[in-house]
Amino acid sequence: MKTPQSSAKKGIVKSLALLLPLRCCLAWLSLLWNNAIGAPPPNFLLILTDDHGYGDVTAYGPSDVQTPNISRIGAEGMLFTSMRANATVCSPSRAALLTGRYADRVGVPGVIRTHPGDSWGYFDPKVPTLANELKNAGYHTALVGKWHLGLESPNTPNERGFDFFHGFLGDMMDGYTTHRRHGNNYMRRNTQVIEPQGHATDLFSDWAIEYLRDRTRIQQPFFLYLAYNAPHFPIEPPDSWLAKVKARAPHLDEKRTTNVAFVEHLDHAIGRILAALTEMGLSENTVVVFSADNGGSLPHAQNNNPWRGGKQDHYDGGLRVPFMVRWPSQIKPGSRSDYSGLVFDLFPTFLELANQKPPIELDAVSLVPLFLGGSLTAARDLYFVRREGGRIYGGKSYEALIRGDWKLMQNDPYSPLELYNLRDDPQERTNLALANKKLFDDLASSLRHHIQRGGATPWQITGSVSK
């Protein structure tokens, strides 16, 4: 028999259950309401740096480098502590970011380079990019900085969804003030070859600010992908920045001093971008994301602490990257998330915020519930691939797979697979491949599935490699 007291208790429990997700629901309703009343959709500013170590951003802990402007993005928004790049080198990471699919599924398992005989990818022109999708949603789309997904038609930025391109088509620069690669000038304004003067980090910042200023004159949402070459080697800070660090920290060795100055110059440039957003009245409704394409280069004294390894490694030093999102109108300042995701999750995130339905072929998932105080509970494997030539790699690939707390990986094509428990052993010191054979076999089977799936997409254009 029901008593009034038991009925009341059940009612309270039911009410509490409904209230638990209230914050997330209210935030989501706020977004829906903004759409319903015709409030403008958010702008997107994605800042991507190159070979930027997790330990070279002070938001993640004490360091000999000072990054107040980068860290400010996380302090004024949400700091993600467990995000990884989609690859341990440039081109695959960028291909995944711009398509929401694993890199080998879009034809870029390795680095795209100037010379066809040493180029390990061909960006599938049939796959729509994030720029394509946002352009279809009414956004103006722009890339300032590094492209690195093709040097000729049909894989130039203007042909892959960007209304405006002002930057560098190629991979690394041989010099930050000469802007050449193997003697080639890859600097462009749309399709026009240009000869700008100055340090590339300053040039890209100037061009981004010019673009933002132009956007204030037009009532249209924008997507600006600002991709710096820095701090990729060669490590070339301006002399004034190098002198500043030498005076402040004379105990640092030469390599580290030079890298610290390079990162601090980059941080200053990002501070200029944030100041321009404020000055132009764009801050409140602009989603600003900061991240990197892979971890830092250990031979160049970059810092990936506390993780093992660096660029080119499938250990977490090569994959863990800084990741933070600021959106003053929706994200609570000082928020943190330990969600273990991948940088390409920005693809469906931006589309959802633009009120667009993402394509069903994506491997990425939207981060919007996290922005709104909720959670993401659906489990998925995280897959990584890198193909490379040279004497060490011989044109072969090596892969990694993360499932929950477990990582199965190779760090080169010829070594046996290694197995680590990332919860108990975050520095990946104890290989459990022989101790947990059943799990090893299960993860290896899933890894083979990903390799076969990616192998269905050609990664060389017919006739591009000389015999």
Can you lay out the helices and strands and say which pair or pack?
Blueprint: H1 4-19, H2 22-36, E1 43-49, H3 68-75, E2 78-80, H4 90-99, H5 130-136, E3 140-146, E4 164-168, E5 180-181, E6 184-185, E7 187-189, E8 192-193, H6 200-215, E9 222-227, H7 239-248, H8 254-279, E10 286-292, H9 316-319, E11 323-326, E12 335-337, H10 346-353, H11 368-371, E13 382-387, H12 390-393, E14 397-403, E15 406-409, E16 418-421, H13 437-454
Parallel strand pairs: 1-9, 1-10, 2-12, 3-4, 3-9
Antiparallel strand pairs: 2-11, 4-7, 5-6, 7-8, 10-11, 13-14, 14-15, 15-16
Helix pairs in contact: 6-8, 7-8
Describe this structure in words.
The chain is 31% helix and 15% strand. The chain is of the alpha/beta class and 467 residues long. The chain folds into 2 domains: 41-371, Alkaline Phosphatase, subunit A (3-Layer(aba) Sandwich), CATH 3.40.720; 382-454, 2-Layer Sandwich (Arylsulfatase, C-terminal domain), CATH 3.30.1120. A 10-stranded mixed beta sheet has the order 8-7-4-3-9-1-10-11-2-12, with helices on both faces. Helix 6 (200-215) packs parallel to helix 8 (254-279) and helix 7 (239-248) crosses helix 8 (254-279). It is globular, with a radius of gyration of 23 Å.
